[in-house]
Amino acid sequence: MWHVRKSDEKGYGLFAADNISCSRIILEEEPITSCQFSWNKLYKYLACDYCMKSLETSEEMARRLTQNKAIVLPHPECCPTNPATHVNCPNCEVKYCCSECRLKAYNEHHKVLCPALHNCDSQQLDNLEEIWRSFHYPPETATVMLLLRIIARVKLEPNKDEFRQTIESFCHESTNESENIAHKLLGSKYKGQLEVLRKHIKSIIYDDSLSFWFTDDGFVSLFALLGTNQQGIGSSALSIWAKKCDSLNLPQDERQNLDQLIDNLYEEMDNVSGEFLNCEGAGLYMMQSKCNHSCAPNAEVCFLHNNHRLTVKAIKDIHHDEEITISYLNKCELSRSRHSRQKYLRENYLFTCKCEKCYNEADDPDETSDEDLSSDSDEMQ
Q: CB of 359 within 8 A of CB of 371?
């Protein structure tokens, strides 16, 4: 259905090997590693420590997000959570959705990072998360704990060099050689914070085979991976429950009552918890990372399985040999002017977008919108 192609201008890209119809699933993949965001975890969004599947029942999640313990949800058969399958690490009580995830986590990183096995100090791990939270406030877009899991996995891989090279294929320099664009996470403002993180991670999990990653330049390059290649992940038992309720075959009056209940529930959650409704984190994906950005994409990333398994789905008909593109911007950012989109992409992803939409808007001399001017003014203050 697709193949990978490399060019001098854009690097890797995903291209359609045949015609792909709208709504068709193009690919699904598991991440190299994933991790829940630190603030998200602190505020008790309970998720499997391996696959990020929501561990709360739909009703438990609804009660927490509304702060209303009296809520009782109908149709419990639509809840995807089965607490009977949940297990803990027998040593440190980290929670998993099932024994399979516990085993995968142990083999990929937890054998190194479990404090009870005396490979890592629990206080040092807690301190690192606290330091990260002091540098990176909600809404979260990254977590330094992902780097910790990457390093732990390298230590556990039978072929360390091959896996290290895989990770380094994602890494960037602190500036883009072709356009000399400074990454906002790696500019002078962040040098002090980066040094604190580098020294702390080195004290937790140093490995001679990865000595370059612990140097100033190596750590900057590795850290850039968080800003340019990680993919956000979201899971919600409540969202799955609501979708399954939508598909129930119910009498009209019962359907209307259920729809109204769900609308009222989401309105109450919005009033109490705002936009923070999901278990959220980030992962590193091999194939998805090769999908280039477009401001008018023909595909989208979604999470259909209530865990970290990623799906790329067509949102338009895609023709044979056409590049498969996704948007690195959310819907609100996509609606802004070319000037604003370009600025965000340069600062966060180290490139200038040359998609068809940007090309068509390039001739507009008065494209800067009011919100762009306001944003620029805020940054100057």
A: no
The pLDDT value recorded for residue 348 is 72
- Assign 3-class secondary structure to 182-250: ECCCCCHHHHHHHHHHHHHHHHHHCCHHHHHHHCHHHHHHHHHHHHHCCEEEEECHHHHHHHHHHCCCC
Strand duo 25-29 + 310-314: pairing: antiparallel
Block residue for tokens 């791990």: 125
Q: Which residues make Cβ contacts (< 8 Å) with residue 176, sequence separation at least 6? A: 183, 350, 351
Residue-wise pLDDT for 315-335, tens only, equals 999 999 999 999 999 888 898
* pLDDT tens per residue, range 53-62: 999 999 999 9
Give the span between the Cα atoms of 347 and 141, in whole angstroms: 14
Angstrom distances, CA of residue 274 to CA of 65, 120, 269, 277: 9, 36, 7, 7
**Other C-beta atoms lying within 10 Å of the C-beta of residue 12:** 14
Give residue-wise pLDDT tens across range 259-291: 999 999 999 999 999 988 999 999 999 999 999
Which string of DSSP letters, residue by residue, matches 322-346? PEEEE-SS-HHHHTS-HHHHHHHHH
Kindly indicate the confidence band of residue 365, based on its pLDDT and cuts at 50, 70 and 90: low
Question: Of 70, 55, 20, 27, which Cα lies nearest the Cα of 316?
Answer: 20
Q: From 64, 68, 112, select the one nearest 91 (Cα to Cα).
A: 112
pTM as predicted: 0.88
The β-bridge relationship of strands 292-293 and 323-326 is: parallel
* Strand pairing class (292-293; 87-88): unpaired
pLDDT digits (tens, 9 = 90+) for 7-53: 877 888 999 999 999 999 999 999 999 999 999 999 999 999 999 99
Angle between helices 58-66 and 237-246 (to 10 degrees): 110
Question: How many angstroms separate the CA atoms of 56 and 83, rounded?
Answer: 8
Q: Which residues pair with 326 in a beta bridge?
A: 293
What torsion, rounded to 10 degrees, do the Cα atoms 64, 70, 76, 80 define?
10
